[in-house]
Amino acid sequence: MLSTLLAFLGACTLIAASPGPSTVLIIKQSLRSRRAGFLTVLGNETGVFVWGVTAAFGLTALLTASQVAYDVMRYAGAAVLVWFGVQALRHAHRLRHTGEAGEGWHGVERGGWSAYRAGLLLNLANPKAAVFALSFLPQFVPAGAPHLPAMVGLAAIWAVYEIGYYSLYVWFVGRMKAALSRAGVRRRLEQVSGGVLLLLGIRMALEG
Fold first, then answer.
1. Looking at residue 107, what is its pLDDT?
2. Helix, strand, coil percent values for the chain (each to nearest 5)
């Protein structure tokens, strides 16, 4: 059991270290405040746990069996990514004209719910996350263990582990905030992150 758990955590580390939309969003939100960054992490990992539990019950198999269901989720996910990207580019445009960092992107500074919702929405709108959970978690269920509770337990461990992992990103950005918060730097970061999210959304929409 210990060797299985260590292998599972090693795999979780590799997954978390792979750059993707969630990583971009977490770093981006962390530029606004550590609180916003951490709540985005919590939202993202709630999505991870939801997909893990859904996979445990076998419901994500519907996405792999139904091309229509998968395509609907894929286009919805692409729309979410494009929307986030456009919002970031609009904020970069405002920074260019005002020269001030501002607080208003996606309402993050007006309430923690907005940051949490952003992380949750981005994760749940990604059909690849659902399909991945379905293929990933069963590999680490110990032989002879009850399948459903083991998968749910692994999903919980996965989510909690990634909370710790991504919290390091939030902490690091917070440490660098004095340098990163200058209007010119912030504008470039908004442009880069917005462009990345926009391209990821377009790629998700176009790929089969």
1. 40
2. 85, 0, 15
Q: What's the average model confidence in pLDDT over 9-37?
A: 87
Q: Which two tokens stand for residue 153?
A: 């337990």
Report d(CA 80, CA 95) in Å as an integer. 23
CA 123 to chain centroid, in Å, comes to 5
pLDDT in tens, 101-116: 444 434 444 456 888 9
pLDDT of residue 49: 96
The DSSP string of 117-145 is HHHHHHHHT-HHHHHHHHHHGGGGSPTTS
Q: What is the Rg, in whole angstroms, of the alpha carbon atoms belonging to the chain?
A: 18
Q: What is the pLDDT of residue 106?
A: 41
Give the per-residue SS3 of 59-102. CCHHHHHCHHHHHHHHHHHHHHHHHHHHHHHHHHHHHHHHCCCC
Distance of CA 43 to the CA centre of its chain: 8
